[in-house]
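Morning run. Coffee first, then this:
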Amino acid sequence: MSDASLTKFRSAREETPLARYALIAVAVLGLGVLVAAPLIAVFVEALAQGWLAAVASLGNHDAASAIKLTLLIAGVSVPLNAAFGIAAAWFITKFDFRGKAFLITLIDLPFSVSPVVAGLCIVLMFGTNSLVGGWLVASGYPIVFALPGIVLATMFVTFPFVARELIPVMIEQGRAEEEAALTLGASGWRTFWTVTLPNIRWALLYGVLLCNARAMGEFGAVAVVSGKIRGQTATMPITIEMLYNEYLSVAAFSMAAVLTLLALVTLMLKTALEIRHADALAATHRH
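And here it is:
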Protein backbone atom coordinates (compact mmCIF):
# COMPACT_ATOMS: atom_id res chain seq x y z
CA MET A 1 0.00 0.00 0.00
CA SER A 2 1.40 3.39 -1.03
CA ASP A 3 1.95 6.26 1.43
CA ALA A 4 -0.87 8.23 -0.14
CA SER A 5 -3.29 5.32 0.16
CA LEU A 6 -2.19 4.68 3.74
CA THR A 7 -2.73 8.34 4.66
CA LYS A 8 -6.16 8.29 3.04
CA PHE A 9 -7.02 5.05 4.90
CA ARG A 10 -6.01 6.56 8.23
CA SER A 11 -7.95 9.74 7.54
CA ALA A 12 -11.06 7.72 6.77
CA ARG A 13 -10.75 5.87 10.04
CA GLU A 14 -10.10 8.94 12.19
CA GLU A 15 -13.30 10.45 13.52
CA THR A 16 -14.00 14.11 13.09
CA PRO A 17 -14.07 16.45 16.10
CA LEU A 18 -17.85 16.58 15.81
CA ALA A 19 -18.15 12.80 16.00
CA ARG A 20 -15.72 12.67 18.93
CA TYR A 21 -17.65 15.29 20.89
CA ALA A 22 -20.92 13.57 20.05
CA LEU A 23 -19.65 10.26 21.43
CA ILE A 24 -18.41 11.97 24.60
CA ALA A 25 -21.75 13.72 25.02
CA VAL A 26 -23.66 10.45 24.61
CA ALA A 27 -21.41 8.74 27.19
CA VAL A 28 -21.75 11.61 29.68
CA LEU A 29 -25.51 11.73 29.14
CA GLY A 30 -25.82 7.99 29.68
CA LEU A 31 -23.80 8.12 32.91
CA GLY A 32 -25.80 11.11 34.08
CA VAL A 33 -29.18 9.49 33.46
CA LEU A 34 -28.32 5.94 34.60
CA VAL A 35 -25.87 6.63 37.45
CA ALA A 36 -25.60 10.23 38.65
CA ALA A 37 -29.30 11.13 38.60
CA PRO A 38 -30.46 8.10 40.66
CA LEU A 39 -27.67 8.68 43.20
CA ILE A 40 -28.61 12.33 43.58
CA ALA A 41 -32.30 11.41 43.86
CA VAL A 42 -31.53 8.99 46.71
CA PHE A 43 -29.84 11.67 48.81
CA VAL A 44 -32.40 14.35 47.91
CA GLU A 45 -35.29 12.12 48.98
CA ALA A 46 -33.45 11.06 52.13
CA LEU A 47 -33.03 14.70 53.17
CA ALA A 48 -36.49 15.82 52.02
CA GLN A 49 -37.56 16.43 55.64
CA GLY A 50 -34.16 17.52 56.92
CA TRP A 51 -31.15 15.90 58.54
CA LEU A 52 -32.91 15.25 61.83
CA ALA A 53 -35.66 13.19 60.24
CA ALA A 54 -33.14 11.16 58.23
CA VAL A 55 -30.98 10.44 61.25
CA ALA A 56 -34.00 9.64 63.40
CA SER A 57 -35.25 7.12 60.84
CA LEU A 58 -31.92 5.31 61.07
CA GLY A 59 -31.99 5.27 64.85
CA ASN A 60 -34.96 2.96 65.35
CA HIS A 61 -34.48 -0.69 66.26
CA ASP A 62 -35.39 -2.18 62.87
CA ALA A 63 -33.02 0.08 60.93
CA ALA A 64 -30.16 -0.48 63.35
CA SER A 65 -30.73 -4.24 63.23
CA ALA A 66 -30.71 -4.21 59.42
CA ILE A 67 -27.42 -2.30 59.32
CA LYS A 68 -25.80 -4.60 61.90
CA LEU A 69 -27.06 -7.71 60.13
CA THR A 70 -25.78 -6.54 56.74
CA LEU A 71 -22.33 -5.77 58.14
CA LEU A 72 -22.30 -9.09 60.00
CA ILE A 73 -23.18 -11.05 56.87
CA ALA A 74 -20.48 -9.27 54.88
CA GLY A 75 -18.01 -9.81 57.71
CA VAL A 76 -18.68 -13.56 57.70
CA SER A 77 -19.22 -14.34 54.01
CA VAL A 78 -16.41 -12.25 52.53
CA PRO A 79 -13.54 -13.83 54.55
CA LEU A 80 -14.94 -17.30 53.93
CA ASN A 81 -15.22 -16.64 50.20
CA ALA A 82 -11.69 -15.20 50.22
CA ALA A 83 -10.41 -18.45 51.76
CA PHE A 84 -12.43 -20.62 49.36
CA GLY A 85 -11.37 -18.46 46.41
CA ILE A 86 -7.69 -18.82 47.28
CA ALA A 87 -8.08 -22.59 47.68
CA ALA A 88 -9.95 -22.94 44.38
CA ALA A 89 -7.47 -20.75 42.48
CA TRP A 90 -4.52 -22.66 43.99
CA PHE A 91 -6.01 -26.02 43.09
CA ILE A 92 -6.86 -24.99 39.53
CA THR A 93 -3.60 -23.23 38.69
CA LYS A 94 -1.03 -25.39 40.51
CA PHE A 95 -2.29 -28.86 39.57
CA ASP A 96 -3.22 -30.60 36.33
CA PHE A 97 -6.24 -32.85 36.49
CA ARG A 98 -9.15 -34.00 34.41
CA GLY A 99 -12.26 -31.89 34.68
CA LYS A 100 -10.46 -28.59 35.31
CA ALA A 101 -12.60 -26.77 32.71
CA PHE A 102 -15.75 -28.15 34.33
CA LEU A 103 -14.62 -26.91 37.74
CA ILE A 104 -14.01 -23.42 36.34
CA THR A 105 -17.51 -23.53 34.85
CA LEU A 106 -18.94 -24.41 38.27
CA ILE A 107 -17.13 -21.43 39.80
CA ASP A 108 -18.78 -19.18 37.22
CA LEU A 109 -22.22 -20.72 37.82
CA PRO A 110 -23.45 -17.98 40.23
CA PHE A 111 -22.93 -15.44 37.45
CA SER A 112 -25.50 -17.19 35.24
CA VAL A 113 -27.99 -18.53 37.80
CA SER A 114 -30.63 -16.15 39.10
CA PRO A 115 -30.13 -15.32 42.80
CA VAL A 116 -33.79 -16.13 43.38
CA VAL A 117 -33.23 -19.64 42.01
CA ALA A 118 -30.20 -20.00 44.29
CA GLY A 119 -32.33 -18.99 47.26
CA LEU A 120 -35.01 -21.50 46.34
CA CYS A 121 -32.39 -24.24 46.11
CA ILE A 122 -31.21 -23.44 49.63
CA VAL A 123 -34.82 -23.52 50.87
CA LEU A 124 -35.38 -26.92 49.22
CA MET A 125 -32.16 -28.32 50.68
CA PHE A 126 -32.35 -26.90 54.21
CA GLY A 127 -36.02 -26.03 54.71
CA THR A 128 -38.11 -27.64 57.43
CA ASN A 129 -39.68 -30.03 54.89
CA SER A 130 -36.31 -31.44 53.80
CA LEU A 131 -34.54 -34.31 55.55
CA VAL A 132 -31.43 -32.31 56.53
CA GLY A 133 -33.31 -29.11 57.28
CA GLY A 134 -35.90 -30.86 59.44
CA TRP A 135 -33.19 -32.54 61.49
CA LEU A 136 -31.33 -29.24 61.95
CA VAL A 137 -34.51 -27.44 63.04
CA ALA A 138 -35.33 -30.22 65.49
CA SER A 139 -31.78 -29.92 66.87
CA GLY A 140 -32.19 -26.16 67.32
CA TYR A 141 -30.01 -25.09 64.40
CA PRO A 142 -32.31 -23.72 61.68
CA ILE A 143 -30.74 -22.68 58.37
CA VAL A 144 -33.61 -21.15 56.43
CA PHE A 145 -35.18 -17.96 57.85
CA ALA A 146 -32.09 -17.55 60.04
CA LEU A 147 -28.59 -16.13 59.82
CA PRO A 148 -26.90 -19.30 58.45
CA GLY A 149 -29.23 -19.37 55.45
CA ILE A 150 -28.58 -15.71 54.66
CA VAL A 151 -24.83 -16.30 54.87
CA LEU A 152 -25.09 -19.34 52.58
CA ALA A 153 -27.12 -17.41 50.02
CA THR A 154 -24.69 -14.49 50.11
CA MET A 155 -21.69 -16.78 49.79
CA PHE A 156 -23.19 -18.52 46.76
CA VAL A 157 -23.86 -15.26 44.95
CA THR A 158 -20.45 -13.73 45.75
CA PHE A 159 -18.28 -16.85 45.48
CA PRO A 160 -16.80 -16.25 41.97
CA PHE A 161 -15.40 -12.76 42.61
CA VAL A 162 -12.24 -13.73 44.51
CA ALA A 163 -11.49 -16.89 42.55
CA ARG A 164 -11.94 -15.22 39.16
CA GLU A 165 -9.55 -12.42 40.14
CA LEU A 166 -6.88 -14.83 41.40
CA ILE A 167 -6.93 -17.51 38.69
CA PRO A 168 -5.52 -15.31 35.85
CA VAL A 169 -2.85 -13.84 38.14
CA MET A 170 -1.68 -17.25 39.34
CA ILE A 171 -1.67 -18.62 35.80
CA GLU A 172 0.44 -15.64 34.70
CA GLN A 173 2.96 -16.19 37.49
CA GLY A 174 3.35 -19.90 36.87
CA ARG A 175 4.78 -22.43 39.30
CA ALA A 176 8.52 -21.72 39.11
CA GLU A 177 8.81 -19.67 42.30
CA GLU A 178 6.82 -22.13 44.41
CA GLU A 179 8.80 -25.08 43.03
CA ALA A 180 12.08 -23.28 43.80
CA ALA A 181 10.95 -22.62 47.39
CA LEU A 182 9.95 -26.25 47.87
CA THR A 183 13.26 -27.40 46.41
CA LEU A 184 15.10 -25.23 48.95
CA GLY A 185 13.25 -26.99 51.76
CA ALA A 186 10.33 -24.66 52.49
CA SER A 187 7.12 -26.30 53.66
CA GLY A 188 3.86 -25.90 51.79
CA TRP A 189 2.47 -23.35 54.26
CA ARG A 190 5.71 -21.35 54.31
CA THR A 191 5.78 -21.32 50.52
CA PHE A 192 2.23 -20.00 50.48
CA TRP A 193 2.84 -17.25 53.06
CA THR A 194 6.21 -16.09 51.73
CA VAL A 195 5.93 -16.66 47.97
CA THR A 196 2.35 -17.11 46.75
CA LEU A 197 0.45 -14.66 48.95
CA PRO A 198 2.77 -11.66 48.33
CA ASN A 199 2.38 -12.21 44.59
CA ILE A 200 -1.41 -12.31 44.67
CA ARG A 201 -2.12 -9.85 47.49
CA TRP A 202 -3.37 -6.98 45.32
CA ALA A 203 -5.57 -9.19 43.15
CA LEU A 204 -6.88 -10.79 46.35
CA LEU A 205 -7.73 -7.40 47.84
CA TYR A 206 -9.40 -6.36 44.57
CA GLY A 207 -11.56 -9.48 44.59
CA VAL A 208 -12.42 -9.01 48.27
CA LEU A 209 -13.63 -5.46 47.58
CA LEU A 210 -15.85 -6.64 44.73
CA CYS A 211 -17.14 -9.50 46.89
CA ASN A 212 -17.91 -7.13 49.75
CA ALA A 213 -19.80 -4.69 47.53
CA ARG A 214 -22.02 -7.48 46.17
CA ALA A 215 -22.52 -9.05 49.60
CA MET A 216 -23.87 -5.84 51.14
CA GLY A 217 -26.21 -5.16 48.23
CA GLU A 218 -27.54 -8.67 47.57
CA PHE A 219 -31.34 -8.84 47.52
CA GLY A 220 -32.81 -11.73 45.49
CA ALA A 221 -31.32 -14.81 47.17
CA VAL A 222 -31.44 -13.24 50.64
CA ALA A 223 -35.09 -12.25 50.18
CA VAL A 224 -36.00 -15.88 49.56
CA VAL A 225 -34.11 -17.49 52.45
CA SER A 226 -34.49 -14.77 55.09
CA GLY A 227 -38.27 -14.69 55.41
CA LYS A 228 -38.03 -10.89 55.70
CA ILE A 229 -38.49 -10.93 59.47
CA ARG A 230 -38.27 -7.31 60.55
CA GLY A 231 -35.55 -6.67 63.09
CA GLN A 232 -34.19 -10.24 62.81
CA THR A 233 -33.47 -11.42 59.26
CA ALA A 234 -34.17 -8.27 57.23
CA THR A 235 -30.96 -6.90 55.70
CA MET A 236 -30.55 -3.34 54.46
CA PRO A 237 -31.82 -3.98 50.88
CA ILE A 238 -34.83 -5.90 52.22
CA THR A 239 -35.57 -3.22 54.82
CA ILE A 240 -35.44 -0.56 52.11
CA GLU A 241 -38.06 -2.43 50.10
CA MET A 242 -40.29 -2.94 53.14
CA LEU A 243 -40.10 0.73 54.17
CA TYR A 244 -40.79 1.92 50.63
CA ASN A 245 -43.81 -0.38 50.30
CA GLU A 246 -45.14 1.12 53.53
CA TYR A 247 -44.80 4.63 52.06
CA LEU A 248 -42.09 5.58 54.57
CA SER A 249 -40.08 7.36 51.91
CA VAL A 250 -37.67 9.25 54.17
CA ALA A 251 -36.78 6.12 56.12
CA ALA A 252 -36.41 4.05 52.95
CA PHE A 253 -34.21 6.58 51.17
CA SER A 254 -32.16 7.26 54.30
CA MET A 255 -31.36 3.57 54.52
CA ALA A 256 -30.64 3.56 50.78
CA ALA A 257 -28.30 6.53 51.26
CA VAL A 258 -26.33 4.61 53.91
CA LEU A 259 -26.06 1.60 51.60
CA THR A 260 -25.00 3.89 48.76
CA LEU A 261 -22.29 5.47 50.91
CA LEU A 262 -20.96 2.03 51.80
CA ALA A 263 -20.89 1.15 48.09
CA LEU A 264 -19.15 4.42 47.23
CA VAL A 265 -16.48 3.80 49.88
CA THR A 266 -15.87 0.36 48.39
CA LEU A 267 -15.71 1.89 44.90
CA MET A 268 -13.19 4.51 46.02
CA LEU A 269 -11.00 1.86 47.62
CA LYS A 270 -11.21 -0.20 44.43
CA THR A 271 -10.28 2.81 42.28
CA ALA A 272 -7.36 3.75 44.54
CA LEU A 273 -6.15 0.17 44.35
CA GLU A 274 -6.33 0.20 40.55
CA ILE A 275 -4.41 3.49 40.34
CA ARG A 276 -1.64 2.59 42.77
CA HIS A 277 -1.15 -1.02 41.70
CA ALA A 278 -2.17 -1.03 38.04
CA ASP A 279 0.70 -3.32 36.95
CA ALA A 280 -0.03 -5.93 39.57
CA LEU A 281 -3.70 -5.98 38.62
CA ALA A 282 -3.16 -5.92 34.85
CA ALA A 283 -2.85 -9.70 34.66
CA THR A 284 -6.43 -10.12 35.84
CA HIS A 285 -7.67 -8.58 32.59
CA ARG A 286 -5.45 -10.49 30.17
CA HIS A 287 -7.45 -13.68 30.11
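The chain has two domains: 1-46, 55-285. Good start to the day.
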